[in-house]
């Protein structure tokens, strides 16, 4: 089940709380303790190419967008 399927099903079950609880009990994705999906970007929630240095918790794309605002300089 992909993430988009998961979100669609939750939207459909929003009005049926009993069925939603049963669905979540049996089909909820497990909490990640290790691996690539453990750390996510704080801006866009991507989990690939994650920069954890300096406590940033950003993906590389978001870092490139806001690097100058944070105070990083690009060296050529």
C-alpha termini separation: 44 Å
Shape: elongated
Give me the Rg, rounded. Answer: 18 Å
Strand order of the largest sheet: 1-2
Give the mean pLDDT: 85
Give me the secondary-structure category. Answer: mainly alpha
- Give the CATH topology of the largest domain: 30s Ribosomal Protein S14, Chain N
Share in helix? 40-55%
Descriptive tags:
30s Ribosomal Protein S14, Chain N; elongated; mainly alpha; 5% strand
Summarize the structure.
By secondary structure, this protein is mainly alpha-helical. It has helices spanning 3-12, 17-27, 60-70; strands spanning 50-51, 58-59. The mean pLDDT is 85.
Please, could you describe this protein's structure?
By secondary structure, this protein is mainly alpha-helical. It folds into 2 domains: 1-29, no CATH class; 37-76, Ribosomal Protein S14/S29 (30s Ribosomal Protein S14, Chain N, Irregular), CATH 4.10.830.10. 42% of the residues lie in helices and 5% in strands. The chain has 3 helices and 2 strands. The protein has helices at residues 3-12, 17-27, 60-70, and strands spanning 50-51, 58-59. The radius of gyration is 18 Å and the shape is elongated.
Q: How do the helices and strands line up, and which of them pair or pack?
A:
Blueprint: H1 3-12, H2 17-27, E1 50-51, E2 58-59, H3 60-70
Antiparallel strand pairs: 1-2
